[in-house]
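Dear support,

I submitted the protein below through the web form. The confirmation email said the job was done, but the results page showed an empty box. After a refresh the structure appeared. I'm attaching both so you can tell me whether what I see now is the final result or a partial one.
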Amino acid sequence: MGAPPRPVARVPARTPVPAGDCGLLLVRLTFGLLMAGHGSQKLFGIFGGDGLAATGKGFAGLGYHPGVVYAALCGGSEFLGGLGLALGLFTPLASAALIGVMINAMVTVSAPHGLWDTQGGVEINVYIAVVALAIAAIGPGRLALDRRFRWGKGGWPEAAFALCGGGIGAAIVLSL
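What the results page shows now:
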C-alpha cells in the first residue's frame, strides 16, 4: 500500500486586466500628459510655450492682476491636474483643478466667441472639463495609484467634489 496522494496546491490564475481599465489608462495618460504639457508651456516655456513672464503679461491683459501669479496658478493647475489624472493620483482633486481652469478660460476668453473653436469659442474648454469630470465620476480604474483609496473607485461624491471644487475655485479667482 502506498501513501495517500498529496494534495496539489492550486495557484489561482491571474485574471487579465479588463479592456475597460486599459482604455481608461489610455485616456488618462493621453489627456493627462497633454494637459501637463500645456501647463508646462505656461510655467517653464517648454514645448513651444512662452514661459511664466510672458504668460503673466497675457493674463494681466485679461484683467488678472498680478498676471504672473495667475499665470502660475493656471499653469500649475494644468500641470499638476494633468499629472494627477495621468497617474490616477488624487483623481477628484486633479479633475477639480482642470475644471476650475476651464471655467475661468470660458468666462474670460472663449464664451464671447460662441461654441465652436473655429471662432475662438468654448468647444475645447468644454471637452476638457467634461473629460475631467467623467474621469472623476468613473474613477481612475485598476491601473491607477488611487485604486486602493476610497476615492479611487469614482462615483457621485467624487464627481460632485470635482465639479463643486472646480466651480468654487473658479468663482474665487473670478471674484478677485
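Response: this is the final, complete result; the empty box was a page-load delay. The CA atoms of residues 22 and 143 lie 7 Å apart.
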